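The protein record minuted underneath.
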Amino acid sequence: MKKSKILFIDDDRDFVEANKIILNNAGYEVIPAYDGKTGMQKAINEKPDLIILDVILPDINGFSVCREIKEDPNLQNIPVILFTSIGAKPGGYPENIGIQHKADAYIEKPASPELLLEKVTFLLTTSAPKSKIESEKPKILLVDDDPDFLEATKQILLANRFEVITAKDGDEGIQKARIENPDLIFLDVIMPGKDGYTVCYE
């Protein structure tokens, strides 16, 4: 299985290295960047699955980097975690400021490895593209000339979270298959007009 790729942007090299070990041990690939401009360039080039971002950086602040990422159509779906000690200081930014800058999560330093991994796992899981079966109901076309059988089978499939389309003969089945583009077709063989073999061939 391909490892999820995490871009870690922080000017504290020792801090990055320590967290890189934690993330590597959890099965993630980590790409380090030590300032905002380098981080943006690596985000563009590497297309990471998630970005961990400090707020206080030597060139541009993390809020600006986060905003640039979220305004870039090619990067905006990458989840961003603001990971910083700024919220713990007098006059520091609270979590809602990070959210206003379109960050997906905020972690205040120091944080336990468990909290970091919990946030990373949650965001990678919830932001991952879902398969068709997970994101929408699979569509099934039932083609049969027996109306009672069609209705009974339809109710069973609906109860199991399928979308169901029915057709009462071969010609209607072919027409609905072309229009609806179902994921699966249940097809009777013996039908008036075109039999199931002919429909399947077409």
